Amino acid sequence: MRIFSRWFVCLLLVGVGRSARLSSHRRLAFSGSRSISASLSQQQQQQPNEGAPSGQGHHQPSGRLFPMEIGLDMEACDPLDGLSVCMNRGTGQLRVIKGLDHTCIAYGWFNDTLSTEGWGHLYLRTSGHDIASNDVKMYAAGYAEGFLSAVRIGEMNANLVDLLLMEDHDTDALQNIGAHFERQLAAMKREIHFHHHTLVDEIDDPYLKHVRYAFFQLWGMMDGYNDNARHFHATPMSMTDMIFLNSHPYMGDLRQAFNTQASHERQKYRQTGPQQQQVVVDDSHVEMSPPPEPSQPPPESVAAVLMQTGDSRQKAAILNNATTQVQAFLEWSRLVRRSGHCSAMVKVTDDGSDVLIGHTTWSDYSTMTRIWKRYELNLGALPKSQLAAPRISFSSYAGFIGSGDSFYVLSSGLLLMDTTLPLIDKAMHTRVADEEAAPIPLFLHVVACGRTATTGTHLTSCVARQNTGYGSSQWMAMDYGRFRQSGGLTDNAFFLLEQSPGLTHFGDITHVLSSKGHFLSTNRPYYDDVAKGMGYIEAQQEHGNIFSYDHNPRAVLLAHHSADMSELHELRQLMTRNRSPLDNRESGLPEDPSIAIAARFDLSKIDPIPNGAIDAKVVNKCLFAAMMPQGTSGPPHIPLPAFKWRGAIGASSGNASEIERWPGWPHRGLPNEWAFHWTQIFPSRHAYGDDALDDIDVC
């Protein structure tokens, strides 16, 4: 009896100690919470501007969409234990409880391995029970995610708010973006028949149905986070905050499109007549309209850009000895760091038996609050729910309902990914659509298309359904289901869609992939009409191949090093490749780590900032079928030094671990050193590791 008592007391003390540590960590994490909408409201009050648009009432956090009873200890909640959202059959009351109860309408867990692997792992599932509507199920799933990952959402949002405010040189731009989001939110609610606290009949349109489901999920995520934030006396988030957070991947484009001058030019353009969008399906044109006349001055010179920050003498010396090609590269680097994300490739093995796909995300290192997510959504069989992809695996971030990287493995048999297309011709910002023409926030639009599409044709047609005019991208959709069924590449296996302001062009380019053996994506348009409209044709004629689709340095590197590639381990090496100066010597460009498949702008000798490649993901046909992609998080570190937020700089002395290498750049909650390895991604609450990699090639 005495032994049992001691054992029980020890367990109790361990449990109490663990609970205390969890509570202390959560309180500390929430202490730095931020709200962009609150910051903008405060900024507007301090610096009134008669020309700035006023808010539409979404700055204040909304109350819960549905009443929720908290049935667990929020001080000691361990996300790894999981939680469930249940519904009382008699009263319809929702209740969140600890643990995984498969009789509840939604449940999940969060394995927070950010500090040991570079990203956490989140699993969510909705039940197939008919006790609740699909609206309520999706809200419950979102609530579970918001509750489980609340600490990381708070850290991610605080970092992004600081980034936005740090980079805001046009004080009206963020105000204009916020007002745009609020008008868009109101327009979307009308489209999806959303009325607060009122349930409506199912929408017939499959796309709008899933926009509605995703919006309920987003609201649930906000409520799950806010219940934690309020408990720990932190700043809650509004729906405008959630849209800002999820829109961060194309915030660089938004800031350019909504600055004072661009907004003024767009108003003048809209007064000339109705807005029209050009859609090109292969060679068929629909609703053509002439491009706007250039109305803005040419981009500022490379010299002016470089003289704004850093050591002006060093930069002047570089420019004095620079060739025209090098100056063009410097201008391109400025574009990419603001709104250019990702390298990607699709490779057909020489024997035609497999298709290897790799994707590398580029972004500010402050955004690396990474979570790989797996959703399993039971919403009823087709055609009731029109859910084509009930299982979804995707790289993501805390608080994001979609990927953010735009890398989705879908159980429909489709893989969807993109790279962004930086806009060179700023006059095209006049073609940004108003909220009535593009009422669905871009991230929700992509989520809905991915969940409903059954084929590559269906998926690209859905994405083409709306063009906001910002977040210009090159979308690739691989139909692995068709590839496996046919035993090789056939028509309609690989689709490409490109969007730029006012123009969408898409089609089946399987024949291109088959004839070349690969398709490369490096932030340059493939279609000539898109390239011309965005300014790439003229830039290439004036400055050379840095603006070319297939002859730019990254494209040349990808094509050269993938020529004989047939194994997954080769693709892993390629998508994290940064061999500066070796890869730069024959290109005539600076021997700089920013010129690579996986860039490291933090190591640049010209204008270093903590920006560059932040991950890599790869699949083959069998890994795709098993929904077990492989990934690595963080900037490439072989053979380069691992990125660190703090540590010794040069000959610095003293406590080196406390020296901030990047003063002013936010990194709440992020590991200091990023030297993580590849992991196999699958839904497991156990530890992941590089020793568990399995290059499945038979399926």
Automatic annotation (TrEMBL):
Stretches with biased composition (Pro residues): 289-300
- Can you supply a Gene Ontology BP term from the record? phospholipid catabolic process
InterPro entries, A to Z: PLipase_B-like
Identify its protein family.
Belongs to the phospholipase B-like family.
What highest taxon heads this organism's lineage?
Answer: Eukaryota
Q: Enumerate the Gene3D superfamilies for this protein.
A: 3.60.60.30
State the name under which the record lists this protein: Phospholipase B-like
Question: Which keywords does the record carry?
Answer: Glycoprotein, Hydrolase, Lipid degradation, Lipid metabolism, Signal
Task: Please give the function described in this protein's UniProt entry.
Answer: Putative phospholipase.
- What stretches pass through the bilayer? none
* Pfam family of the protein (one): Phospholip_B
GO CC, any one term: extracellular region
Q: GO MF annotations for this entry?
A: phospholipase activity
Its lineage reads:
Eukaryota, Sar, Alveolata, Colpodellida, Vitrellaceae
* Top class in the EC scheme: hydrolase
The region annotated as signal peptide is 1-19
Which parts of this chain are annotated as the region Disordered? 39-60, 262-301
Organism this protein belongs to: Vitrella brassicaformis (strain CCMP3155)
- For this protein, the Enzyme Commission number is 3.1.1.-
